[in-house]
Fold:
Amino acid sequence: MTHRKLPEGAYAALEGLQGQAKAAMAMLPGQDKAQAREALRAAQAKMAENEEWTRKIVKALTAGDGATTVETVDATWLERTFAETAN
Structure:
């Protein structure tokens, strides 16, 4: 088991944001919209359960360089970005 440096809500919020992005892409023509809507509901529920972290992550992404997106970040980015403020 890996040692996580942040509260579990931070990782869950990131998963929710990434799930929302995937679900949005699945809404494109030719995709299974019912499955995409279900994935979107699940992602948004995860984000809502961890609203504070969701807001922090979105704020960090929008304040960034524009090359870093919700699709390109991972747990390492999350920890590097927020480890100092988590204590």
Notes: The longest helix spans residues 8-25.
